[in-house]
UniProtKB/TrEMBL annotation:
GO terms for molecular function: acetylcholine-gated monoatomic cation-selective channel activity. This is Neurotransmitter-gated ion-channel ligand-binding domain-containing protein. Residues 126-146 are annotated as: Disordered. It is found in: Membrane. Residues 311-504 form the Neurotransmitter-gated ion-channel transmembrane domain. Residues 2-119 form the Farnesoic acid O-methyl transferase domain. It comes from Daphnia pulex (Water flea). Signal peptide: none annotated. Keywords: Membrane, Transmembrane, Transmembrane helix. Pfam families: Methyltransf_FA, Neur_chan_LBD, Neur_chan_memb. The keyword Transmembrane applies. The lineage of its organism: Eukaryota, Metazoa, Ecdysozoa, Arthropoda, Crustacea. GO terms for cellular component: acetylcholine-gated channel complex; neuron projection; plasma membrane; postsynapse; synapse.
Length: 509
């Protein structure tokens, strides 16, 4: 038996040779394009094991018919390609079967189209239009007049590609440039151009106006994506203008998406031209290659992100500023700063477990928290300095020029008027008391409670002072000046921290 046929399939073209009309074992089953279009094998039973196989990668095509021949004679099975006299597959059966019937089929998930008893001898294309059809009207191809197993779309595709050279630019004149229009979106990019060779008279082909082609069969621009993964570019349609839309490549991954909203903040597109000469030394041509650059910035809108990250970060900022509102000699400044430092460290460790360890850019929230951590450490250092400054007994005050600054315009800007007034009042009271006669004062001591009260006998009024004033009265003039300096440092640090945090929040949130 000698069988000639053409087949168009992605893979798994099955030819079954049997001894009877019923497909019963034993038999010969030839599979062209087995194992994903990588092998041609022969089986002795239906769906049985292969008895012989040869590697034939990409032998079949899902976009064009390819011809083969099969010869079965006295147990010898030979399979060859159209136009070749020698088989690429040969196997001899030790117990030959008398073959009288054959059937053509494909795998359940594969669509295959067959043409049987094809004449491979003639050089004329078996889809060439007849002499009665015109090929000059409007430069289009005419229809076939002879009977064929092809439908109108298949005829048109075969005729268009019969003399088509995909390595030649689609222009009728070699001096005419081909304009390619490039568009970009977040999921794919679009290319469009006009192919002068892919046009036809639709009325001659049953009003076919749309064709689908694989990218390897026609000309396409030499476009390369610098930072993209390799994907197969598929043509969406061809009619008048050619449009190329790459298919989305799928990769194994775990993803959970819940209505993410993105805001386009900035988008820029530009064309740059360069030649193939590293140095302009005249050793190469002056041809310029165009290069398209797209850059965009998107921002995610996420209420959950604001509630779990942004708000805690802002609260830690407020807590840092609160430490400067406490008195300079208060130990609570160190306590609040230490708690703030601990919370920030835990927060950063938590974020590091969620974010990828590698990357060229640091997330804005991590940058904000890390800078806040540094500022909290500096505030702790300042708190230790002010506490030491106000709690250490001193006999000498700060330099004179510092006192002038704090009691002048700078002190008013820093809001130290009340503190300056209180310090001056206490110093004035102390001076006036020292000038009064000691006869005007009597010291009353209650032996039971051991309370000591200073009473003005001339006016008989007790000096009632707040707790802070009592602490100030216990200081000497030098210590009061150091207290004023500590207040000035706290107020100045508060102003610096406040505006620094405002700038950081404007940049990071």
């Amino acid at each position: 038996m000698e069988l000639r046929f053409r087949v168009m399939a992605k893979s798994d073209a099955h030819i079954v040779l049997t001894t009877s009309p019923l497909v019963l074992n034993p038999l010969y089953e030839i599979v062209i394009g087995a194992s994903g279009n990588n092998y041609t094998d022969l089986r002795r039973t239906m769906t049985g094991r292969s008895v012989s196989a040869v590697k034939t990668p990409s032998l079949l095509s899902d976009s064009e018919f390819r011809g083969f021949w099969v010869v079965a004679r006295q147990g010898e099975i030979e399979v060859g390609r159209e136009g070749e006299t020698l088989p690429y597959f040969h196997w001899k059966d030790a117990d030959p079967l008398p073959v009288h019937y054959y059937s053509l089929s494909s795998w359940t998930s594969t669509v295959a189209k067959w043409i049987q008893n094809c004449d491979f001898g003639g050089k004329t294309s078996w889809l060439t239009p007849s002499d009665n059809s015109s090929t000059e009207d409007n430069g289009s191809l005419g229809p076939q007049s002879e009977e064929s197993y092809y439908n109108a779309e298949e005829k048109l595709k075969a005729n268009l590609l019969a003399t088509y050279n995909k390595d030649v630019r689609p222009a009728t004149d070699h001096r005419t440039p081909v304009s390619v229009f490039l568009g970009l979106s977040l999921v794919h990019f679009d290319l469009s151009w006009r192919d002068e060779r892919l046009k036809w008279n639709s009325s001659a082909y049953e009003n076919v106006t749309l064709l689908h082609f694989p990218s390897h069969t026609i000309w396409q621009p030499d476009l390369k994506l610098f930072n993209g993964l390799g994907i197969d570019l598929k043509l969406s349609n061809i009619y008048g203008d050619t449009e190329l839309i790459p298919e989305n490549a799928l990769y194994t991954h775990n993803l959970y998406v819940t209505n993410l909203q993105w805001e386009l903040k900035e988008f820029n597109a530009s064309i740059h031209k360069f030649n193939d000469c590293p140095e302009n030394d005249g050793s190469c041509s002056n041809y310029l290659y165009p290069e398209a650059h797209f850059s965009f910035i998107v921002r995610r809108k996420s209420p959950l992100y604001i509630a779990t990250v942004t708000v805690p970060a802002l609260m830690l900022t407020v807590l840092t500023l609160v430490t400067f509102a406490l008195p300079p000699n208060s130990l609570e400044k160190v306590l609040i700063g230490s708690v703030n430092l601990l919370v920030l460290s835990i927060f950063l460790i938590y974020l590091s477990s969620l974010l990828p360890p590698m990357g060229d850019h640091m997330p804005l929230v991590v940058s904000y928290l890390s800078k806040t951590l540094v500022m909290v450490v500096l505030s702790l250092v300042l708190a230790v300095v002010t506490i030491t400054m106000t709690r250490t007994p001193r006999m000498y005050g700060p330099p004179y020029w510092i006192k002038n600054i704090l009691t002048g315009v700078t002190g008013k800007i820093l809001g130290l008027q009340q503190i300056i007034t209180l310090v001056n009042r206490v110093n004035g009271d102390r001076t006036s008391r020292q000038q009064q006669s000691t006869d005007d004062y009597t010291l009353h001591v209650d032996a039971g409670d051991h309370d000591v009260n200073l009473v003005n006998t001339s006016t008989d009024q007790r000096i009632q002072a707040p707790v802070f004033r009592g602490a100030v009265e216990a200081m000497n003039p030098a210590e009061l000046e150091w207290l004023l300096l500590a207040y000035g440092l706290d107020r100045l640090a508060f102003i610096i921290y406040f505006f620094t945090f405002m700038i950081m929040m404007a940049m990071c949130f």
